[in-house]
TrEMBL record:
InterPro entries: CheY-like_superfamily, NreC/VraR/RcsB-like_REC, Sig_transdc_resp-reg_C-effctor, Sig_transdc_resp-reg_receiver, Tscrpt_reg_LuxR_C, WalR-like. It holds the Pfam family GerE. Keywords: DNA-binding, Phosphoprotein, Transcription, Transcription regulation. It comes from the Bacteria. Residues 1-119 form the Response regulatory domain. The keyword Phosphoprotein applies. SUPFAM superfamilies: C-terminal effector domain of the bipartite response regulators, CheY-like. This is Response regulator. Residues 141-206 form the HTH luxR-type domain. Transmembrane segments: none annotated. The modification 4-aspartylphosphate is found at D49. Signal peptide: none annotated.
Length: 211
């Protein structure tokens, strides 16, 4: 299901998803209509704009919070026109599984959009690289990230997007053993606990970056 008050953008998203093989079961213009549609026929995932009527502030986030409580099996991908890390954090706190925050500019790459939808539908966490970049690059009086090498920072950034070790291999052209070593170094240097669950791993990294 797709929810966005801009009719042309909404139709464009629906068309991209349909062309990629998704069955788009509803297209709506506000959060209330989305929640009602999900109640009638829960989908595998919804794509929702962060700002919709009536206030155009964070209706999409509120809808994500409600869906996490009522329909935790439904993946939620929130789209935003701007990099807003605080909203991404609020989204993750509303439900750690099947949740994503992606910039609207990514929609110009159909592969990026469809990959994100598939990942949240499967229960994964998706965070836009722009949000991660802002968190990693944030200046602090004492920045523990200074202990990381340049390559370890790159691995940390991809990890925080919700990517698996295999995806890190493909993104950075590294072998699986090399990635495992870098991930181990990152967790050790940042004093984070390794987590078997991919979502918990992402949440731990983002919580650290937000601190």
């Amino acid at each position: 299901m797709v929810a966005d008050d801009a009719a042309l953008f909404r139709a464009g998203i629906a068309r991209l998803l349909a062309d990629a093989g998704f069955d788009v079961t509803a297209e709506v213009g506000d959060a209330d209509a989305l929640l009602a549609a999900v109640e009638r026929d829960p989908p595998d995932a919804v794509v929702v704009d962060i700002r919709m009527p009536p206030t155009h502030t964070a209706e999409g986030l509120e809808a994500a919070r409600v869906l996490a409580a009522r329909h935790p099996e439904v993946g939620v991908l929130v789209l935003s026109a701007h990099v807003e890390p605080h909203y991404a954090m609020r989204l993750l706190e509303s439900g750690a599984t099947g949740t994503g925050y992606l910039l609207k500019e990514r929609v110009t790459d159909p592969g990026e959009l469809t990959d994100a939808v598939r990942r949240v539908a499967a229960g994964g966490v998706v965070i836009d690289p722009g949000v991660v970049s802002q968190l990693v690059g944030r200046r602090r009086v004492r920045n523990p990230l200074d202990a990381l090498s340049e390559r370890e920072r790159e691995v940390l950034a991809v990890m925080a997007e919700g990517r698996s070790n295999q995806a890190i291999c493909e993104r950075l052209f590294l072998s699986p053993k090399t990635v495992e070593a870098y991930v181990h170094n990152v967790f050790t240097k940042l004093d984070l606990h390794q987590a078997a669950d991919a979502n918990r791993r992402v949440l731990a990294v983002l919580a650290y970056l937000r601190a």
